[in-house]
Design a protein that fits this description.
- The complex is a heterodimer of chains A (about 150) and B (about 750).
- Chain A has about 150 residues and is of the alpha+beta class.
- Chain A has helices at about 25-30, 65, 85-90, 100-115, 120-130, 140-154, and strands spanning about 1-10, 10-15, 50, 55-60, 70-75.
- In chain A, a hairpin with a 2-residue loop joins β1 (about 1-10) and β2 (about 10-15).
- Chain B has 3 domains: about 1-215, Aldehyde Oxidoreductase, domain 4 (2-Layer Sandwich); about 220-310 and about 385-460, Aldehyde oxidase/xanthine dehydrogenase, molybdopterin binding domain (Aldehyde Oxidoreductase, domain 4); about 550-750, Aldehyde oxidase/xanthine dehydrogenase, molybdopterin binding domain (Aldehyde Oxidoreductase, domain 4), CATH 3.30.365.10.
- Helix content of chain B is about 30%, strand content about 25%.
- Chain B has a 7-stranded mixed beta sheet with strand order 12-13-10-20-17-18-19, sandwiched between helices. Chain B has a 5-stranded mixed beta sheet with strand order 15-23-22-21-16, with helices on both faces. Chain B has a 4-stranded mixed beta sheet with strand order 2-3-4-5.
- In chain B, a hairpin with a 2-residue loop joins β24 and β25.
- The radius of gyration of chain B is 28 Å and the shape is globular.
- Classes of the chains: A alpha+beta (about 150), B alpha+beta (about 750).
- The interface between A and B is large, with 64 and 67 residues.
Amino acid sequence: MANFKININGKSQNVDVDPSTPMLWVLRDHLKLVGTKYGCGVAQCGACTIHLDGTAVRSCQLTVSAVKDKEITTIEGLSENGDHPVQKAWLEHDVPQCGYCQAGQIMSASALLKRNPQPSDEEIERAMNGNICRCGTYTRIKAAIKTASDSQIA
Amino acid sequence: MSKVRTGIGRRSFIKSVSLAGGGLVIGFNWLACKRAEEAAGKEVAMQMPDEWFEINGYLKIGDNGIVTIYSPNPEIGQNVKTSMPMIVAEELDVDWNNVIVEQAPLNTDIFTRQLAGGSQSIRQGWESLRMAGATARQMLLTAAANQWEVPVSELSVEKGIIKHKNSDKSIGYGEIAKAASQVEVPEEVELKDNDNFKIIGTSRKNVDAKKIVTGKPLYGLDVQREDMLIAMVVQPPAFGMEFKSMDAEKVKDMPGMVDVFTIDTYPEDMEKEWSDVAAFSKLVVLVGESTWQVMQAKKALKVEWELNPELTKDIQILEKSAGLEDASGLESSEFHTSLMAEAGSKNSEVVRRDGNPEKAFKNAARVIERTYTCPFLAHNCMEPMNFFANVTEDKAELLGPIQTPEYAEKSINKRLGFDLENIDIQMTRMGGGFGRRLYGHFLVEAAVISQKLGKPVKLVYTREDDMTNGVYRPAYHVKYRAALDGNNNLTAFHVNAGGIPESPLFANRFPAGAIDNYLAESWTLKSNISVGAFRAPRSNFIAGAEQSFLDELAEEMGKDPIQFRLDMLERAKTDPVGENNDYDASRYAGVIKLARDKAKWGKESSEMSRGVSAYYCHNSYVAQILDMSMKDNQPIIDKVTCAVDCGIVVNPDAAKNMVEGGTIDGIGHAMYSEMSFKDGVPQHENFDTYRLIRHSEAPKAIDVHFVENGIDPTGLGEPPFPPIMGAVANALYKATGKRYYDQPFMKAQSILG
């Protein structure tokens, strides 16, 4: 066990865990931030996607010891009132079915739009291909990303 | 307006009120409620009421007019948590903006069929949900009439405001709710005519959407309790094996670990429910303080396994009779394939025979025979199996994702010996169901573990545990034969269907009833791999196979595939063969025509490869036309046009979402997904090798159209899923010149390259 000071959603947090613990479980078990989901544990489904210094990463593969002074953003910290353009677009298109994968989808989509505010269809597909949705909401997700893209430009 | 007897007597009503009291709300504080529209993202300022008045078990009204409606059925992503309360709100005549929705816990005294399965929630809840709203409305009106000393017939109500025709009197539901809660429950209530619907048939956003997109705790895996421990299981590595021994001492000393032991979830003498499906009853359990710590201990634990002679003896007999040298009783996919091919080549149990099919085949000018297969599938709900249990000396509290809470309660009653009133089952929102969570062994496991520890426990399956646990979609095999005469007329049809361990045959569905000489046969093979219902059970294979065969048959007969189907349906409508035809030929033809017209069938560009398919299941009709093109030798699905007849559509945009999702899910499973076995060991245990459809493989556009016929609603969660597999196969043929008979189609990907 070791003590780690990490910056999550703009707040400094202390956790006492094994250095090998993935951020996924630090968030969920120790910090009670359960918006980040467990889906596969092997970086294949994208449900656990968070931002590390603004880039989408799979938190199941990011050990707590590797974070150091980088800034972590989770779905809970994406916006203060749930009004990030991507979240608003998700509501407008009423995207979720079961909803379990959607936090990860939103984190991947928001990171994409940050680095590429006007992605093409192919760029959206490439950026989102690591996020599985068993319910099959892919067409709505793509439409919502386009809406969010447009709203950022407007 | 139609008068309907409520069937709610005074006695049962009083019972309902007492059961639906304050405790119900307190129990759900952790899923803190929000108004329906606010939850969907609208900013609305509204105070919570100071006092709530229970009107009936489905709803309560606050003194300020806010209404809480309990959604009775489990929410697995089919959106009943929005659409069921919409039906109550419709008859209640309340402003949807003033509605809060809460998930009801299991309560068999108030609700019937609290189950997510068979696409039946809306269909079977339709009347009771409407009556719950209408009864409450009637009581509110009666209370206002009493207060004003006027007849009820002089009152009208709109959006929760009652008005008196002959004066300027008006009163809100909130102000009269207290008096209404004292009113005698009416024996008859009037239900609205469909023309007067104001909420049903209008799109309302998912009531949990805001919580979903902001990452609020909603799911079983999100449950947190003080002093809660994390439990995980280790199950045998192969179907047919069982626990022998383990060396747990070192693992018990690992950081955060509390205990390691074995359980027997379903002892042999326990009377099981249908939902108690579990391939592995005896499990190793690891318990610790945090998920990661238990995962590490799980990896380090050494367990010895051995063959279970009870499970493997029947398979050994099969293996020996097939001449296998190594008759271990542990199954492999290769063995399954050869067994099914052999079984499918023989005559089997005749389930239906019309006319004289044998003679027609004998006299045929041509016989067309094709065989179709599909593999086992894992459900792969994105949220792996899990459950929270807190079992004390005399009470069992269970909270988590379960599609069958009523049966789970019975299982707990049998397993722990607790009376039903001491078993409290509450449902979280579920990260997918698809049939997997009908089988609540994980709930029983959690309860047994909690009881043994005397502590609250959250049982967590890893993805690997989830994918290798069984309860799979069975493997199926079907052979179709068609007899054509010298003029290319279809004279006989033969379906011979089977599977491991169940047959996919629906002998009385189309094309039965449309052909004079018809033969349907069915067979099954034993297995020790556990299976369960998987989105549209049996239909999820036989629809695609049948619709592929009809496509090939139409081509052989020189007919347009849509006109061929419509001609057969016309025959089934005007001069049906046999009496037990399980479909309405007019509604069936209706969706095909609607899809044909919307997709502008026959007018597509020459570069577009089109496949059509249609099917009837779960009381609904779906036709799909799929447009495909090839890019770099890979199929691209440009568009799918869907036509659906599910009667009245309660929540149109959400219903479209469901059809889009079912379509994509169906394409994915037909093209990519497969569970295979070697010596009883599942060969895929995570998404690195088990393929699910991904973003880039989804259709570029899906166009959904509903038939408007005013018929009471039927199923929607399952019906769009099975037929699309046929449309995929038929479009692939057009695009590649090759027919695809064996799912998953992209296993034969090299053919395209």
